[in-house]
Amino acid sequence: MLLRFPALCLLQSMCVATLPAQAIVSAPPVRAKHAMVVTIQHNATDAGVAILKQGGNAVDAAVAVGFALAVVYPQAGNIGGGGFMLIRPAHTTGPKKLADGKPHFLDYREKAPAAATRDMYLDKDANVVKGMSTLGYKASGVPGTVAGLVYAEQHFGRLGLNAVMQPAIRLARDGWVGTEPELQSWHTKVLEPYPESRRVYQRNGNYYKAGEIIKQPDLAATLERISTDPTEFYTGRMAKQIADAMQAGGGLITAADMASYQVKDRAPLAGNYHGYEILTSPPPSSGGIVLIELLNILSGYDLPRLGADRSPEQVHIITEAFRRAYMDRGDYLGDPDFVSMPLKQMADPAYAEAWRKTIAPATASPSATLVRPAGFMPQPNSTRDVHESPQTTHFSIVDADGNAVSSTYTLNFFFGSGVVVPGLGFAMNDEMDDFTSKAGVPNGFGLVQGAANSIAGNKRPLSSMSPTMVTKHGKLRLVLGSPGGSTIPTTVANDLISVLDNGLTIQQSADAPRFHHQYLPDALEVEKRFPVSVTDVLKTRGYTIRRQGEFDEKNPGQWGDSELIEVDPKTGDLLGGHDARRAFGKAAGY
Ligand code: DON
Predict the structure, then answer these.
(1) Do 52 and 137 share a domain, yes or no?
(2) Domain containing 98: what range?
(3) Is 410 near ligand 1, meaning CB less than 6 Å away?
(4) Are 192 and 92 contained in the same domain?
(5) CB-count burial class (<10 Å; 0-12, 13-18, 19+) for 161
(6) Ligand 1: does its nearest atom lie under 6 Å from the Cβ of 144?
């Protein structure tokens, strides 16, 4: 964990533009009367707004944004990866009702190829082969993004796939203009071993420069083929092209794997916090249940009475809630289609109350001596999961009817496995690294994972992506989410607490310096610009502080990317908060 960001910078050249260490003064949130789109890349935001103005709903805009990010933010936006989309219709009856009027969680997470096996990343001595689950052909799961976006459009959209894909096709065909911080990460070594990847993203060493028009003709043709016939990707000629490329490179994905890929339309998880309703991500995301458990623990505190946002008093209590929820995360979670999980017990308020009794008012509880309250949970059958990984992207959308979409999708690492399928112009994921390569053995980024998340054919790897919404008395209040691997649930929790408990604006909450604890390693991680005065106090209370970037100037010193929407409770206006850590993103509405 200590080495997460330096290691990633070194290995993947993923250091992106960072903010100076001094505190940021947040701009006011972007305000709009009717609809709002917030994403990490301004062209993608514009694509979403254009679709809304054409009469599209939030799902039409989300599908447009999803495909557009595959063009203008290909290091994480993708069609070769997978993700989750939380959809909340505003109306349950009447002419404005969207689909069945119920909230849906579309799970379009990648799945392991059928031929994947538990020990596929081990050598003959049962040691994990470094890089095998993160780089190259064997690192990819069967991509789910195209199926997910198509399913979303077909079941919830209004304008039709062809229409909502046009902005992405135009951006790929006619080009877009990148900025230095975006294009810096295209220099990554991850792409270099693969001539096609080097040609497509690195122009064989003549790297794209800020201000240049970037055209992606292969990707434009791929998107056009999908827009005309979406079955092309999974059962058509394109499926065969993908499978042939994977097989030729020594990967496992076959045409049969592509053909059998299915989106899972799941019920979101529901929870409560201080009179608000929480709608969030079920497994195979670990994020939603972790969020519900930690908020249940925090429900017993009046945080603003303890101190201000990011005060030592608040950070202490919130950190202890994080620590306890992450202890359970590691022991119990995996793909719900393969393992049974004590979700009800984890979400039980009585369990949260028992946890609260173990929290000392002012001092840290060391993870090594932390004992789970008896009588609530089954015996765990796995070792712990301390999960982390470096590239993903989140976007939030609300339309003029109040329908909302919160979506996080990923290639896992920057540019995924590094492999671009010849002629198709997109990178394949390395999501197989989200599985347990070997129980108890950390991978190159410090991952130590358990048996519930072991590799099996057709299984989905455990995720931390946590698209979430908050309502009050059934009215939408917040749309939340972020990338950041294992830090995602704590980023979402901090954003939620900053707005609902502490009264920060949605923009201030997105920009606020982050802190994170995940039980193991037993360290309170803070961003580079987190106030030293606060961590100095926390050190005296028994916390080991790990300040990102402290010992390595190449370390970006930050994590996450909150792309958030709040509904102003007084006026009903939509307030967009785009994370100031990424200058090239945008909140926009009308
Ligand atoms: O699904 C997951 O949890 C990871 N593959 C997400 C990776 C991620 O968020 C990296 N972002 N910076």
Answers:
(1) yes
(2) 30-265+391-431
(3) yes
(4) yes
(5) buried
(6) no
Residues belonging to the chain = 590
- The CA-atom distances, in angstroms, between 80 and each of 42, 107, 145, 425, 566 are 22, 15, 7, 10, 31
With tokens 């100076």, the residue in question is 20
Residue 446, domain member (yes or no)? no
Full DSSP string of 472-508: ETTEEEEEE----GGGHHHHHHHHHHHHHTT---HHH
Q: Let me know whether 47 and 110 are in one domain.
A: yes
Given 45, 222, 383, 392, the catalytic residue: 392
Is 363 among the catalytic positions?
no
Q: How confident is the model at residue 14 (pLDDT cuts 50, 70, 90)?
A: very low
Q: How far apart are CA 485 and CA 385, in angstroms?
A: 12
**Given 382, 410, 431, which residue is the final one in a domain?**
431
Task: Give the ligand 1 atom nearest the CA of 560.
Answer: 12
Ligand 1 neighbour 465 (Cβ under 6 A): yes
569 CA from centroid of ligand 1 (Å)? 32
Q: What is the pLDDT of residues 85-131, one digit of tens each?
A: 999 999 999 999 999 999 999 999 999 999 999 999 999 999 999 89
Same domain for 337 and 290: yes
**pLDDT tens digits for 356-401?**
999 999 999 999 999 999 999 998 764 443 333 347 999 999 999 9
Is 17 found in the same domain as 59? no
Burial class (CB in 10 A: 0-12, 13-18, 19+), 390: buried
Who contacts 439 (Cβ-Cβ below 8 Å, separation ≥6)?
382, 383, 449, 450, 451, 454
- For the chain, what is the domain count? 2
- From the number of C-beta atoms within 10 Å of its C-beta (0-12, 13-18, 19+), residue 123 rates as exposed
CA–chain centroid gap for 479, Å, is 14
- How far away, in angstroms, is 280 Cα from ligand 1 center? 16
CA pair distance 524, 545, nearest whole angstrom: 5
Q: Which of 587, 586, 583 is nearest to 18 (CA)?
A: 583
Residue 226 per-residue DSSP state: H
Q: Which helix (H) or strand (E) holds 185?
A: none
Beta bridge partners of 589: 36
Run of H or E residues at 84: strand 82-88
- Centre of ligand 1 to C-alpha 405, Å, is 19
Contact 131, 413 (CB under 8 A): no
User: Could you give the CA distance from residue 107 to residue 84 in angstroms, rounded to a whole number?
Assistant: 5
Q: What is the pLDDT of residues 38-74, one digit of tens each?
A: 999 999 999 999 999 999 999 999 999 999 999 999 9
Quote the CA–CA distance of 29 and 566 in Å, as a whole number. 9
Same domain for 148 and 105?
yes
